Amino acid sequence: MNIPFLDFLDKWRKRQSSDSGDGLAAVFENDPEGVSELFSECELLRSQASAAGLELDDTAASLNALDQLPPRWRDDPEVLPWLGNDAGLYLGSVIVRTVPGAVWHVWPGGHPGVRLASGREIHVVEAGLDWAINGAPELFQVYAEAAEA
Q: What Å distances lie between residue 69 and 19, 23, 49, 51, 103, CA to CA?
């Protein structure tokens, strides 16, 4: 059965899903400072760190301090992916703020990452998820590799 409205709806959905990465890329280009500010919020990570007595000050030292926290979040499978996402965005924020030439970048599909002045790209959200789930790579290690590149 051919229902024109359903055909229209299907085409619209396909167009929206393929345009989503382009829209995010446009936001990066139009307001990079606003995007950086948004990514650095990391509310869940900051609240977990604060509960452990750690203040996140957007420095490499705070990444090292995060690496030393006992991973109590691993006990809560609902929190784990969100915390990992926040950890990756925080890692990216620290790199963008402290490593000369580092900028936020959006990959096809709309995933944020960091591009270094050398052209090397770091999948910071993936690194944050790996850190939250497995404890490796350590956030400071990823930062140190980015800083020396």
A: 39, 36, 8, 11, 28
